Amino acid sequence: MSYLERNLKSTPRGFGKVLYFHWPLAILIATISGVGFLMLYSVAGGNIDAWAQPQMYRFVVGFVMMFIIAMIPIAFWQRMAIFAYLFAIALLLVVEFFGDVGGGAQRWIDLGFIRLQPSELMKIALVMVLASYYDWLDESQVSKPQWLLLPLALIAIPTALVLKQPDLGTAMLLVAGGGVVIFAAGVSLWYFGALLAALAGLVAAVFYTRGTEFELLNDYQYRRIETFLDPSISPYADGYHITQSKISLGSGGYAGRGFMEGTQSRGNFLPEKHTDFIFATLGEEFGFLGGITLLGMYMLIIAFCMISAMRNKNRFASLLTMGIAATFFFYFSVNMLMVMGFAPVVGVPLPLVSYGGSAMMVLLGAFGLIQSAHIHRPR
Amino acid sequence: MMEFDHKGDIKRSRLSRRALMLGGIQTAVAGVIGWRMHQLGVKEGDQYRLLAEENRINIQLLPPARGLIYDRDGDLLTINDRVYAIEMVREQSRDPELILNRLAQLLPLTQDDIDKALADMKKRRAFVPVTVATGLEWEHIAAVSANAPALPGVTPVLGLNRQYPKGPEFSHIVGYVGSVSDYDLNETDDHDPLLRIPRFKIGKTGIEATLEKPLRGEAGIKRIEVNSLGRVIRELDRKEGASGVDIQLTVGQELQTYTLNRLKGHSASAVVMDVTNGDILALASGPTFDSNKFLKPISQADWKDMNDPHYRPLVNKAVAGTYPPGSTFKMVVALAALDAGVVDAAEEVYCPGHMEVAKRKFHCWKRGGHGHVHLREALRYSCDVYFYDLALRVGIEKITLMAHKLGLGERPNIQLPSIKEGLMPTKDWKRKVKKKDWVLGDSINAGIGQGFVLASPLQLAVMTARIASGMKIEPRLINLYNNELYPTRGLEPLDINPAHLELVRRGMYEVSNHRRGTAYGARLKEDRGGPMAGKTGTSQVRQITAAERRKGVVRNEDLPWNRRDHALFVAFAPAANPRYAISVVVEHGGGGSAVAAPIARDIMARTIKLGDKGYGNLPNTRTREQT
């Protein structure tokens, strides 16, 4: 990094670390969150109390948390990886048995002050534990099948638990996030080729078993996929979401209808306008320009992370950064593709923008890890 | 150290390679996202913008207030009653059954009503509003409005219900309104979106039907911004419609009621006209029906009554009934012969009681015959043989020509439905329609208004008015149309020698006022406004065979009702200075002089007694309801 680059021979210490923070990344995160506040203010019809303000409080808490995590050496987080993973597994088991049922799926643990979503935590914990594993494993061994078993199990266990909730979106993100770490670690491309083939087979199997007693997905999951493939099946039921969000995005045109002028969200035509479909409102009010700007900012975050990861000689830090960046990428890309009708409606929020405590906190925490990796990189 | 570094470099380069691959994939996906944004927002933006507008903007029709119909005195014949109703749109309700059950807690809805509404909604397209309940009180509407958030797709509406305060007396003229049928929607040229409003009513018969479009008015349009539940956020703009036009009839209630009452007990009709301007003062067809009964589901018994096959209450016989005019047609024959110059006032014809033409005997109604009669006498006694002779002399073509001059065989131009034009035969007509040649017997029959000749009571009234006034008077049913005087038509003199008209009028005078005139018994005395001049008619509806005649013709009273003769009478009064004309037709009533003439006399007496009070003013201010 060229800014404030002093040829340090060793990692910075104490409050001096603040200087070596990845400030552009932090500012970008704050900017995107700011866009989120604006949008939440707008979809509430100019009401700050509904969503924008609680979101701001969480952001402040999360941002502070990000700094705290960043201050702690990455080596500590590497040691914590396995515990974070086990903790997240334990929480998933807790929701499995005691969780509140919200929106037809068990996802939450209500701790009173915050409703914790263990699957969000799991996404980061999984990346941490896999990065830690591949840091420990000699690189020449990575493509050996016996050394692949453990990482696959590490992915499979939480995925199975999340699927059981059922939460298809998070399950997909877990598999993808874990897969990216394995990929980055250098596992032979043949495996991935085989995986793609297997995936195609699985998709076929999913549809082939529909209606039999061996159904792999729930009925609502089938329906969501079906309406994704053809929204006109039921424009006022399942396809309603996609149809309306496409209308919102499209009606924004090039420059949008202007802040607070979105008729789709103000008229409540848009479902889940403050959570999963908030991008549609952004598109409606700020148009193609607004959407592409947000996408650009997201991609800049990814770029910062990838560059930081490539420059980092610490293998754990590098893999962790890439894994988290990939998870972040999956968040916004799946959400945007879904809102634009290119992916099934799977319930993935727009990171840092959608209303929601857990995701915001976990993401800021994860960026704390990336910052820590950046600050404490070997010189 | 060196080796480690080297190995480290290899490691790094592999990780970097993978990172670049990842970055490449991510960039590609981002590219797809950006392309899709461009496609949605920029390339297809207009289309989605339109869809968003459709989402947001709901166009509501503002049904106009239907035009009102007044009688001659300026009294209302129709009123628009305020009524509250509840409409529901299926697609906005999402779960109509649930919403209906919620509604049932607020409104008096039975399970039947709910089932019917559900069936209605299923039948129609999802966005079509369906009336769930009607005839509601204001409290119900208030309750529904208060609970609107829990009742998506439900809208209270204010409607106007047509009522007919005068009941049966004007039913044939005013008619009634009814729901729009599939036929109205699909088979007519009327594409007014108002027709698609649930339970919108349009005229089905009478003036309500013939003047449907002006009475209906023009729909206003209200554009409102709504949310996804159909809840109104704000009104964007509105274009007021125009209420339907108001109409004042020439018919007054008092005379109309009297006329109908006088026809009671018969299947009969009567038309009273002002011969000076064609104003129809009464146009009655008995028995009548009550228009109000068509506003609600009709009971079986009522339906049966209204469709009585003999008395046919639903048919306006005054315009839709056509009858052989019988002897009332003799004026036409007389005028045709006089104008053609084949006869004069003094020429006498000998009537032995029958006439033989081509080995067929044509009888006079008086078996002994009338002896030598001239034209006035022939009219006075209604001598058939005289007119047989005249008809043969002048020929059917000239008779028909004269009939048309007097309005027979022409469609009367008034604003009522199912007006019949009757029939005035010609030789060509018979060849074309009946595929037979015209024979002398046909002319003979036509001479006494039998055979093929058909006319409606309205036409007979017009004929009488023209003879009485000497002008081409046209009937006029509407006085004010949208606050403008409806024109009087036909004030030019007839293309008939006035002296001949005067002669025929004289003959008609004698019918009613000569001691031996056929209608002397039903003359209008001077103290009742008389004298009047008339002509009786008795038209056969059956053929009397020679054999029957030998045995002696069966008396009318002994025949089954529907084979009895029609009784007709036409008249004008006062005889010296004609002002009013009347025609009365009593179906299967028997003799014109015995049945129709007294009815006509009484109606005429009442007409004269009521006199010409002129038109009543329409109320200037009245509340125009607009929903």
What would you note in describing this structure?
The complex is a heterodimer of chains A (379) and B (627). Chain A is mainly alpha-helical. Chain A has one domain. Chain A is 65% helix and 3% strand. Chain A contains 13 helices and three strands; from the N terminus they run αααβββαααααααααα. In chain A, strands 1-2-3 form a three-stranded antiparallel sheet. In chain A, helix 3 crosses helix 4 and helix 12 packs antiparallel against helix 13. The relative contact order of chain A is 0.16. With 627 residues, chain B is an alpha+beta fold. Chain B has a five-stranded antiparallel sheet with strand order 12-11-21-20-19. In chain B, strand 11 and strand 12 form a beta hairpin. In chain B, 46% of the residues are buried. Chains A and B meet through helix 6, helix 9, helix 10, helix 11 and helix 12 of A and helix 1 and helix 2 of B.
Please, how many domains of chain B?
A: 3
Low-confidence stretches of chain A: none
Main beta sheet of chain A: strand number and arrangement?
3 strands, antiparallel
Strand-pairing-aware structural class of chain B = alpha+beta
Mean pLDDT of chain A: 84
Mean of all residue-level pLDDT scores of chain B: 87
Estimate percent helicity of chain B.
Answer: 25-40%
Biggest β-sheet description of chain B: 5 strands, antiparallel
- Determine the N-to-C terminus distance of chain B: 92 Å
Strand arrangement within the widest β-sheet of chain A reads 1-2-3
Molecular shape of chain A: globular
Strand content of chain A: under 5%
Helix residue percentage of chain A: 55-70%
Secondary-structure content class of chain A: mainly alpha
**Ends apart, CA distance between termini of chain A:** 12 Å
Assembly form of the protein: heterodimer
Radius of gyration of chain B: 36 Å
Strand element count of chain A:
3
Pfam families (chain B): PBP_dimer, Transpeptidase
Keywords (chain B): Carboxypeptidase, Cell inner membrane, Cell membrane, Cell shape, Cell wall biogenesis/degradation, Hydrolase, Membrane, Peptidoglycan synthesis, Protease, Transmembrane, Transmembrane helix
Subcellular location (chain B): Cell membrane; Membrane
Protein name (chain B): Peptidoglycan glycosyltransferase
